[in-house]
């Protein structure tokens, strides 16, 4: 945020101008009303239909309160008017305004849009202030994905695209099926079935474990709670499953402690639900597949499309989608049956600061490392084991890795204790070495995995040896050496054991990075995998509000969101959605109090587990319009409809090759554009234009994208509220002309949406250079860098500047012709680890003829 401060002289000038305006006739008019008075914008707003059937008060342009009557009724905008005398009301009526009430000199009025350009004629009115709408407030995550633009509740009834006819399946810790968010207005359950795998006695047909409750049994348990132990004894004692189900498909109707109905409604409030309780916090992958198979069969039998939420995962496997677990998810996926998975919470994105501004020391927790299996190379990785209190017994503490490499490569892997003692194993072998400082076990004997043609090595340091000694604190080193001829392909490893006493963990300190850590089953080819970004930092509680003490920027990636890509190079995750302090259903059986919001029936939670059900619900909305969608088609739609902004251009790792898509996928979830891309019939028409706002330097251009749904065959046209500031052509290309702000309006028939374009001065990049060449003869060894020129680049402007090309000349004499190329410009970066431009030398005695060009240096 840029803070601008007004000097005393400027302030006095502004006050004098305001006084002159008032004295010279004419009130102060809210800037939004001034903009709305512009003809192009006014016509677009006038043609917008009512927000819902039977509504007269509607949210208008820029959130203004407007009244929309039936045919032939003039649309008006509501406002407050401060009168200087009683005649002010008559003046307003003379413009066609209707007066609601007047108290203490302040009138409530409805102004015809056609009168807005005549407000300056008023003499007995001091101020006119636009009235905004105070709608039923949905959670911040809903606002972030523009959920309320595609469905809303009117008089207790949901309209728009609501997921009706689609089943949302959830495999999780169960559900509080008595919660009103999962019941219709008549009290009937929206659950079609519930399979509790944690208790036996009544498995579903075709399965041998668990307790299955059909819809009738669930309803009896709701209506006759004393008999619930017989009819449907399932309870969500963890609360995670109820929360994810509520985000995907809760209808928000539960209200307690004076709360607001529908405030925390989920994405698909009229979808049906089918739930599998797989555990109370940990799950068997085989149970997950059984649950998915049952859900898929139910989808077929009921002839309803289904999207299943899996807010779970782990770091097992080669991270390439070839595990049987992941392949079975691919096999189950089909048109009309889609699986959504969270990317995982193993990220260490280094984008957190203290909310109070005090110093914050980032302590990364990196779980992945990689290196190239190039002939003759050796890589070392440092692991820090902190001081901790070991538990009594054996196999309580340890850390370890799963390392995957090409089948043709032969490696030697060594693990070195802090005292220098070590143990190593080569490909094809397996052995443990017990020691009073910790047992080391390395297994490289499994051979080539037939699923992917690769090899896996397991490396553990634990207390499972006969000495029963836990890994000693200090820096451990894992050394990976390539034997013989290497393939040159990378090897990768991940923590798959990290448990020390008192909750301590081992941390990667050297050689580790923040990529390739999307968990399984998120690496499955067909899975729609979801990362998390930030939309909320505080949430209401009964005594006020509770906030995070360490925060990211609103809109930034969540600190924990796991990044990709997969080991085989596929983009994961595909999309991001809100995942910080998301408010959803609170299970009455979970015993949670710290995060319960002020209504007492919802709570805040965070994780990619909370982001995934946003996407699950979004796909349910998409399937309502196109029931046979496939996961591949959904991902294609995301590629066109995801929001990309300044945050989605960021990376959160320092290793070479990282891309913003490693964390963001295609970008951020946004529903209006998503449904525009899907097409189909919807009871709620809309036009969507992206981006919602942008800042452009003078003379720059921006290509807007717009789409419509429910608007018939009307083409989209673009207009500018102030073409002198920013013009727009028929293709949606905006050109920034003069300093100021203009609204670009996309219209299709009677529908319209706007984006605000702020034009700022173009940035100036000032470049200075100073010679840092040696003042006397200099001797250097082979490979040494000889600094010759120091460059300084400075930008004065409102936006970041990306230097696409920078050329400069070095001139001088090297009589001995001993100056050699110090950098290969085509293959090596010209920036060092501290972002300083490296000195560059060129061949030859005469340097004046050589031009050195630097590409893509970001400021």
Structure in words:
- The protein is 16% helix and 31% strand.
- The longest helix is centred in the middle third of the chain and has 18 residues, at 285-302.
- Helix 8 runs parallel beside helix 11 and helix 11 (608-625) packs parallel to helix 14.
- Mean pLDDT is 82; it is low at 1-23, 49-59, 132-139 and 819-859.
- By secondary structure, the protein is an alpha+beta fold.
- A hairpin with a 5-residue loop joins strand 2 (57-59) and strand 3 (65-67).
- It is globular, with a radius of gyration of 32 Å.
- Strands 12-11-13-10-14-15-29-33 form an 8-stranded mixed β-sheet, sandwiched between helices. Strands 1, 2, 3, 4, 5, 6 and 7 form a 7-stranded mixed β-sheet that branches. It has a 7-stranded antiparallel β-sheet with strand order 22-23-24-19-26-17-28, with no helix packed on it.
Q: pLDDT under 50 segments (min length 5)?
A: 1-23, 49-59, 132-139, 819-859
Report the total helices: 14
- Report the span from N to C terminus: 18 Å
The total count of strands amounts to 48
Mean pLDDT: 82
Helix content: 10-25%
Using the alpha-carbon principal axes, give the shape. Answer: globular
* Percent range for β-strand residues: 25-35%
Kindly provide the radius of gyration, computed on alpha-carbon positions and rounded to a whole number of angstroms.
Answer: 32 Å
Main beta-sheet strand count, sense and barrel state: 8 strands, mixed
Order of strands across the widest beta sheet?
12-11-13-10-14-15-29-33
Structural class, from secondary structure content?
A: alpha+beta
